[in-house]
Amino acid sequence: MLIFDQFEEFFFDHKDTASKREFYEFLRECVEIPYVKVILSLREDYISYLLELNRTTPLTNSPDGKIIASASVDKTVKLWRINGTLIQSQQKHKKRVFAVSFSPNAHGKTLASASMDGRVILWNFDLDDLLIRGCNWLRDYLKTNPNISEEDRHLCDGIGTQE
Question: What is the pLDDT along the chain (163 residues), one digit of tens a residue?
C-alpha cells in the first residue's frame, strides 16, 4: 500500500511539468499492479489540479464546457464537473481505457470510450431518449401487472411512442 498524505504539497514542491509527469507515470504504473493500493490524501479543492495536470490520462470536455470525461487505467470512464467534483464513474471495459470523446453533433449527449479490450462503448446521456426507451420497455408491464396501482399504470402516458 502506498499512502501519500497531504498530497496538495506536491503541487507546491513540483512546479515544472516534467517532474509532475514523471511522478504521474510512477503512480500510473503502481495503480496497474493488482496487489498495490494507492491512496492520495489531499484537500478537495485540489482535485481539479489532478484533472488539469495529469495528461497521461486522456481527458475531453463536453461541447458546452461544463463536464470533463476521463479515461483511466483502472478500466473506468469518469465524468467530472469543471470544478473537479466527480459526477459519475462507469466501469464497463475489461482493460485500460485509453480514449474518450464527446460527440459534437449530439450536443454532448453521447460519449465514446475506447479500451485496450478492443471495444468502443457509446454512452448515452440524453435523458429524454433514456426516458422514452425506458417507458417503451416498461409500458406492457405497467398495463398488465395486477400488482401495479391504477395511478402507476399511467406513469408513461404521453412519453415516447406507444409501441
Answer: 777 777 777 767 777 766 676 777 777 677 667 777 777 776 666 665 665 444 446 778 888 878 888 887 788 888 888 777 888 888 888 888 888 888 877 666 888 898 888 889 888 877 788 788 889 889 889 989 999 999 998 988 888 765 4
CB 97 within 8 A of CB 123: no
Q: What pTM was estimated for this model as a whole?
A: 0.50
Contact status, residue 38 vs residue 2, Cβ threshold 8 Å: yes
| The CA-based dihedral angle spanning residues 29, 35, 36, 38, taken in that order and rounded to the nearest 10 degrees | 100
Cα 109 to Cα 28, 29, 77, 92, 116: the distances in Å are 29, 32, 15, 18, 24
Question: CB-based burial of residue 102 (10 Å sphere; 0-12 exposed, 13-18 middle, 19+ buried)?
Answer: buried
Which of 145, 144, 142, 123 minimizes the C-alpha distance to 134?
142
